[in-house]
């Protein structure tokens, strides 16, 4: 929150008492108490260090986006209706960006940040890719596209989503983070809006929907009820969108172009087999997230002529 946004003030002592109580309620309900910290940080100028040291307690007046009663209402909605705090305050942190979010988009996850590190590593190995055209397919809030734009200052980034609402948020986030001249937005089904770029893409990065359809309803209500099904449901085995990205990408990637996706734990071995069977890919790799789970798959495209299958 910028300091000028604080339309209310809460004393440090009042906010500290509320914070203590809310953290206890979180623990009792098996909610991560870090969510309370996150809520306080999102509505005030209190930072992570002063929360850890509890030094905000000494402040006479803390400028806040909400007064204490409204903060308490938000927190009770989080507890009772299982609405993620990010949707309640309309924003989240991802890498070094503050992103606007709504229930039209998935809340970008910390593990997805690793995709940008993998892009860094791939470009270090093949510097010629850096100044090319990169696509973020299924951009949602625009998180990956923004991450690519910052990581690859000479690249042109295209963010694609079939949802007009998601693209509107991605556009707002690009503008708010000073990156709107670096990111082009296109609406449509995966590669369909990129017909003019066949054989030209330096890289394709995606966090596609990968949850098997029957599993979606079994997820925590914060996800199953409040996050958009379009962002979650990956078809009967969770791999419908991923198989499409395997089949279609060789027509769009340049030779040696990067194919990189996030997947669900347990899926990478199957995805590697599918890439191998396709015949247009080489340098197949899988990577782990910070919890040690295999969650990312990357490959290089041998170029359009290497493709055994043809897709639209
Ligand atoms: C798992 S979310 C990822 C959002 C964002 N990239 C992130 O990592 O936070 C998947 C995204 O794919 C989009 N999507 C689903 N089906 C699509 C399709 N057929 N074509 C393009 N985008 C699609 C959804 O709207 C959603 O924004």
Automatic annotation (TrEMBL):
A GO biological process held by the record: methylation
Its EC number is 2.1.1.297
Q: Which EC class is the enzyme in?
A: transferase
The residues covered by the Methyltransferase small domain are: 115-212
Q: Which GO terms describe its molecular function?
A: peptide chain release factor N(5)-glutamine methyltransferase activity
Sequence positions that bind substrate:
207-210
Question: Known Gene3D superfamilies for this protein?
Answer: Vaccinia Virus protein VP39
- Give the catalysed reaction(s), semicolon-separated: L-glutaminyl-[peptide chain release factor] + S-adenosyl-L-methionine = N(5)-methyl-L-glutaminyl-[peptide chain release factor] + S-adenosyl-L-homocysteine + H(+)
One Pfam family here: MTS
UniProt feature coiled coil, ranges? none
Where on this chain does S-adenosyl-L-methionine bind? 138-142, 161, 190, 207
Keywords (alphabetical) are: Methyltransferase, S-adenosyl-L-methionine, Transferase
Q: Read off the InterPro entries from this record.
A: HemK-like, RF_glutamine_MTase_cyano, RF_methyltr_PrmC, SAM-dependent_MTases_sf, Small_mtfrase_dom
NCBIfam families documented for this protein: hemK_fam, RF_mod_PrmC
Family stated for the protein in its record: Belongs to the protein N5-glutamine methyltransferase family. PrmC subfamily.
Q: What does this protein do?
A: Methylates the class 1 translation termination release factors RF1/PrfA and RF2/PrfB on the glutamine residue of the universally conserved GGQ motif.
Spell out the PANTHER family in the cross-references: PTHR47441, RELEASE FACTOR GLUTAMINE METHYLTRANSFERASE (PTHR47441:SF3)
Which protein is depicted? Release factor glutamine methyltransferase
Species name for this entry? Halomicronema hongdechloris C2206
What gene is it encoded by?
Answer: prmC
């Amino acid at each position: 929150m910028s300091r000028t946004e604080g339309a209310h003030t809460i004393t440090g002592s009042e906010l500290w008492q509320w914070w203590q109580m809310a953290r206890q309620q979180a623990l009792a309900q098996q909610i991560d108490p870090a969510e309370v910290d996150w809520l306080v940080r999102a509505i005030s100028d209190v930072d992570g260090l002063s929360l850890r040291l509890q030094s905000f307690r000494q402040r006479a007046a803390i400028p806040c986006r909400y007064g204490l009663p409204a903060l308490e209402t938000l927190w009770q909605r989080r507890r009772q209706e299982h609405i993620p705090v990010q949707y309640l305050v309309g924003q989240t942190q991802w890498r070094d960006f503050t992103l606007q979010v709504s229930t039209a988009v998935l809340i970008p996850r910390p593990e997805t940040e690793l995709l940008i590190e993998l892009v860094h590593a791939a470009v270090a190995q093949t510097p010629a890719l850096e100044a090319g055209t990169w696509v973020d397919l299924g951009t949602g809030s625009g998180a990956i596209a923004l991450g690519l734009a910052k990581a690859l200052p000479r690249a042109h980034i295209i963010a694609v989503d079939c949802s007009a609402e998601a693209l509107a948020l991605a556009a707002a986030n690009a503008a708010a983070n000073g990156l709107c001249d670096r990111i082009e937005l296109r609406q449509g089904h995966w590669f369909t809006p990129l017909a003019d770029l066949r054989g030209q893409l330096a890289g394709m990065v995606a966090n596609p929907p990968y949850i098997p359809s029957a599993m979606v309803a079994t997820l925590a209500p914060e996800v199953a009820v409040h996050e958009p099904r379009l962002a979650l449901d990956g078809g009967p085995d969770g791999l419908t969108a991923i198989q499409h990205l395997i089949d279609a990408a060789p027509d769009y990637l340049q030779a040696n172009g990067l194919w990189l996706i996030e997947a669900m734990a347990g899926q990478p071995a199957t995805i590697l087999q599918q890439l191998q069977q396709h015949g247009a890919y080489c340098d197949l790799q899988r990577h782990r997230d910070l919890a040690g789970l295999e969650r990312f798959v990357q490959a290089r495209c041998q170029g359009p002529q290497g493709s055994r299958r043809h897709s639209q």
